[in-house]
Amino acid sequence: MNLKHTATPVLQAQGVTKRFGALVAVDHVDFQMAEHEVVAILGSNGAGKTTFFNLLTGMFAPSEGTIFYKGENITQLSPAERVAKGLTRSFQLTSTFDTLTVLDNLVLAYYRSHYKTTIWNLLTTRTASLHHEPKIIEAIETFDLQDIQSRFVRSLSLGEKRRLEIAMAILADPEVLLLDEPLAGLAESEIKGVLKVLRNQIGRQTILIVEHKISHIQDFAQRLVVMHDGRVVAEGGYEECLNHPEVRRSYWQIEATEDANA
Ligand SMILES: Nc1ncnc2c1ncn2[C@@H]1O[C@H](COP(=O)(O)OP(=O)(O)O)[C@@H](O)[C@H]1O
Ligand SMILES: [Mg+2]
Fold first, then answer.
1. Is 25 in the pocket of ligand 1 (CB under 6 A)?
2. 82 and 120 housed in the same domain
3. By CB distance 3.0 to 4.6 Å, which of 27, 87, 98, 100 could disulfide with 154?
4. Distance of CA 180 from the midpoint of ligand 2 (Å)
5. Contact between 117 and 127 (Cβ < 8 Å)
6. pLDDT tens digits for 150-182?
């Protein structure tokens, strides 16, 4: 018997709304994800994707509505409390330490989440022994970081840094991985590299990716949710969303214009 459809969603939003003054950035959004599902939220600039993402991670409190994690109401929990429950976002750019090596950043990410230790304690510990932690060695391989592990983060390309950030998020062993435009600003070759490492995580994590361009996640996401003006205007598979009249009207014309350059 397939229990998937009756199981409690891992992450769920019910009637979630966020207002900034008179602006309704997220407008009564219902959303849910099953365990190990890979979902992409798409939409043009200003559609409300990041705001919705921030409501899920706890960065903002919703003006209305409820957010559940495995059936538990987490609407009032802080980002840190949500991370502790297994809801982890890939921290963009800010969470890496530029003056440390790739390997030391991985060590920090791992030990901070597993031993709740302070950065100070870690920095004053002889780190050589920490480098041999099997999870860290595995992450270096999975995320293709072998060749750059001794480099300082400040010397990395954007694509290399993005892979490191995702590796750091995954070292915390999240159940749900949330990524807001992890492909933004990357060259095509770097996009392939990031998608390759993300594909390795399918079946291990529930993955939510916010993306601007549908073609990038066409072969990656199992289900698409398209937002426009704060609302979900379409939901389903790639073809279904591609041909949805409201998507064609609102979002699609932007990408079609970009692609066709017409
Ligand atoms: N902190 C904020 N204060 C005021 N308005 C905001 C804030 N964050 C986002 N907005 C507005 O909310 C709308 C949705 O923005 P956003 O969620 O960033 O869209 P997206 O990520 O889809 O591009 C936009 O009109 C944006 O200007
Ligand atoms: Mg955004």
1. yes
2. no
3. 98
4. 7
5. no
6. 999 999 998 899 889 988 988 888 899 999 999
Ligand in nearest proximity to the CA of 180: 2
What's the domain count of the chain?
2
Task: For residues 82 and 183, state if they share a domain.
Answer: yes
What's the CA-to-centroid distance between 102 and ligand 1, angstroms?
A: 32
CB contact set of 189 (below 8 Å; sequence gap of 6+): 159
Residues 103 and 68 in one domain: no
Note whether 163 and 183 are same-domain residues. no
Q: Which of 24, 229, 184 is nearest to 90 (CA)?
A: 184
Strands 11-20 and 64-69: antiparallel
Q: Determine the structural domain holding residue 155 and report its residue range.
A: 90-173
- pTM for the predicted model, two decimal places: 0.86
pLDDT digits (tens, 9 = 90+) for 193-244: 889 889 989 999 999 999 988 888 888 999 999 999 999 999 999 888 888 8
Q: 104 with 132, same domain? A: yes
Residues 191 and 67 reside in one and the same domain: yes
DSSP β-bridge partners for residue 177: 88, 207
Sign of the C-alpha dihedral, residues 197, 218, 88, 118? positive
